[in-house]
C-alpha cells in the first residue's frame, strides 16, 4: 500500500518505522507502538514452539556431540557430588539420612535449573547473534529456547531424585500435582529474566560475569545443603532471598511437604513484578538489540 493511500494511523506508524530503518533515533516511535510490537513479538515467539523446541534440543546435542551418554554426564557429576555431601553432612548437621538425602538431592537439582536459566538468560541474545543478524525471527524465541534447554537438563537430573526417593521410600502423594504450577512459575520467571537480563547483557557485556558472582553468593544463602529450620535469628535471610521461594515451589511438592500460602503468594508477586519490569525494558530496547550484538 502506498504511503499516501494509508490511513492516518497507518501513516503515523509507517513513517517512524521507515525513519528508524535508515538510522534515525529510535525514540521517535510512539510508546504505544513499542508496546504493541513487543507484545506481538512475545506472542509470535510463544507460537513458534516447534522452532525453539528444536533449537533447544539441538543446543544440547551440539554441546555433547560425539559423547556416548550426552547430558547424562551432568547427571553423573551431580550424583557424585550429592553422594559425597550426603555422606558427611548428615553427621555434621545431626540430620537423619533418610530425610536429608532427598532434601539435598532436590536442592541441587532445582538450583541447577534456577541458576542455569539465569546464567543462560544473560547470553540468550548474545549466543544467538548470528541468527538474529541473518533471519528475522521474534527475539522472544531465543529466550524460550534457553528455558526449554534447561528444562531438558532438569529432566535428566531428576533421575537422581527418582533413585534416591525409591531407595528411601519417599512418595509425595497428591502434592506432586503442585509441581506443575511450581515449574510454570519458574519458567515464567525464566522468560521474563531472559528478556530483561538478555537485553541488558547485549548492551553491557560485563553483566553476565556480575550475575555469575551474585549467584555464587546466593548458592550459600539458599537452603540447598542446609535446612531452613536451622536458622533462628537469621531467618530474615530467607525472607529476602527470591531464589528460596522458587526453590520451594518445586522441591516442596516433590518431597510431599505442605507449603505455606506465603511462599506461593510471594512467588506469584515476584513473577508479576518481574514481568512488568521485563516488559517495560524489552519494549523500549527491542529494536536496538540487533545493533548491540
Descriptors:
disordered N terminus; mainly alpha
Question: Can you characterise this structure?
Answer:
- 74% of the residues lie in helices and 0% in strands.
- It is an all-alpha fold and 293 residues long.
- The longest helix is centred in the middle third of the chain and has 29 residues, at 140-168.
- It is globular and about 60 Å long.
- The two termini are 33 Å apart.
- The protein is built from 13 helices and no strands.
- The protein has one domain.
Shape field: globular
Poorly predicted sequence stretches spanning 5 or more consecutive residues: 1-27
Give a count of the beta strands, DSSP E runs of length 2 or more.
Answer: 0
Radius of gyration: 22 Å
Total DSSP helices: 13
Estimate the mean pLDDT confidence. Answer: 84
What about the largest sheet?
A: none
C-alpha end-to-end distance: 33 Å
**Series of H and E elements:** HHHHHHHHHHHHH
Helix content: over 70%
- Kindly name the structural category: mainly alpha
Q: In percent terms, what proportion of residues is strand?
A: under 5%
- Give the number of domains: 1
Short description:
By secondary structure, the chain is mostly helical.
Amino acid at each position: 500500500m502506498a504511503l499516501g493511500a494509508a490511513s492516518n494511523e497507518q501513516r503515523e506508524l509507517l513513517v517512524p518505522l521507515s525513519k528508524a530503518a535508515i538510522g534515525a533515533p529510535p525514540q521517535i516511535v510512539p510508546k504505544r507502538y513499542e508496546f504493541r510490537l513487543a507484545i506481538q513479538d512475545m506472542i509470535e515467539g510463544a507460537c513458534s514452539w516447534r522452532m525453539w523446541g528444536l533449537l533447544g534440543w539441538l543446543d544440547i546435542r551440539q554441546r555433547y556431540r560425539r559423547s556416548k551418554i550426552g547430558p547424562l554426564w551432568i547427571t553423573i557429576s551431580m550424583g557424585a557430588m550429592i553422594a559425597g555431601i550426603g555422606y558427611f553432612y548428615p553427621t555434621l548437621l545431626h540430620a537423619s539420612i533418610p530425610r536429608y538425602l532427598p532434601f539435598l538431592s532436590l536442592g541441587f537439582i532445582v538450583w541447577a535449573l534456577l541458576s542455569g536459566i539465569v546464567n543462560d538468560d544473560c547470553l540468550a541474545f548474545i549466543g544467538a547473534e548470528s541468527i538474529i543478524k541473518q533471519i528475522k525471527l521474534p527475539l522472544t524465541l531465543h529466550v524460550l529456547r534457553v528455558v526449554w534447554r534447561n528444562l531438558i537438563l532438569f529432566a535428566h537430573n531428576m533421575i537422581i531424585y527418582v533413585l534416591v526417593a525409591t531407595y528411601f521410600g519417599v512418595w509425595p502423594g497428591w502434592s506432586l500435582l503442585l509441581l506443575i504450577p511450581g515449574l510454570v512459575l519458574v519458567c515464567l520467571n525464566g522468560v521474563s529474566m531472559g528478556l530483561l537480563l538478555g537485553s541488558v547483557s547485549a548492551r553491557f557485556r560485563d553483566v553476565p560475569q556480575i550475575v555469575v558472582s551474585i549467584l555464587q553468593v546466593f548458592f550459600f544463602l539458599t537452603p540447598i545443603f542446609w535446612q531452613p529450620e536451622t536458622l533462628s535469628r537469621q531467618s530474615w535471610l530467607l525472607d529476602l532471598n527470591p531464589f528460596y521461594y522458587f526453590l520451594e515451589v518445586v522441591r516442596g511438592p516433590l518431597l510431599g511437604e505442605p507449603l505455606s500460602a506465603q511462599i506461593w503468594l510471594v512467588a506469584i508477586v515476584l513473577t508479576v513484578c518481574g514481568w512488568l519490569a521485563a516488559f517495560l525494558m524489552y519494549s523500549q530496547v527491542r529494536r536496538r538489540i540487533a545493533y548491540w550484538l
